[in-house]
Amino acid sequence: GENVEQHPSTLSVQEGDSAVIKCTYSDSASNYFPWYKQELGKRPQLIIDIRSNVGEKKDQRIAVTLNKTAKHFSLHITETQPEDSAVYFCAATWGSARQLTFGSGTQLTVLP
Amino acid sequence: DAGVTQSPTHLIKTRGQHVTLRCSPISGHKSVSWYQQVLGQGPQFIFQYYEKEERGRGNFPDRFSARQFPNYSSELNVNALLLGDSALYLCASSPTGQETQYFGPGTRLLVL
User: Fold this and answer.
1) B41: which chain A residues are within 8 Å (Cβ-Cβ)?
2) Does residue A55 contact residue A111 with C-beta atoms inside 8 Å?
3) From the CA of B15, how many Å to the nearest CA of chain A?
4) Which of A28, A65, B32, B104 is most buried when burial is the number of CB atoms within 10 A of its CB?
5) Mutate to test the interface with B, among A64, A87, A100 (most CBs of B within 10 A)
6) pLDDT tens per residue across all 112 residues of chain B
7) What is the rounded distance in angstroms from the CA atom of residue A17 to the CA atom of residue A10?
8) What distance in Å separates the CA atoms of residue A23 and residue A57, rounded to the nearest whole number?
């Protein structure tokens, strides 16, 4: 099955700085890579996703890059704000059910 | 526009008991997936159902079972509860299971 590794586990940045979270995956057949934001006690919310036929995707302050050869993908958040503080999960889909395999999460703290 | 709903929100059971968790997908979505999220970890895939058929199953014991109804809602059943079953159980829906999955608020299960 798929294995997704995520780094770092915790990340603190000053407000206005950029944050980068990196993930690697093992199954070369995976072709869809979503990122979810989960605030304490709440549901995971999709913030951006990328498919394997695209190398980069941007949505305002958020961008995701994908390197299929190296089997890694990254989340970039620019101009961070305190409300960006949350746990961020990367995931990859695999198998006939296209089930999501999640990384272990990154606790992002944006310091005012 | 209603999102994914789950019931109950919280549940306390004792070891050996049985539990049933319920999920209603977004209107028009025919696929439901179940995930278990232990505190401090990413969600782990349990089942995916599409058009009332099981499409995929994660690495969980036979104590876990699920079904999907004609209206596409779903139930997750767990028998002979163990302390280690304490977790947040998340339901996610998508149109056919092959696209973006949207999560419900989860059911927080505590086994004593």
Assistant:
1) 104-105
2) no
3) 24
4) B32
5) A100
6) 579 999 999 999 999 999 999 999 999 999 999 999 999 899 999 999 999 999 989 999 999 999 999 999 999 999 999 999 999 999 999 987 777 899 999 999 999 9
7) 16
8) 16
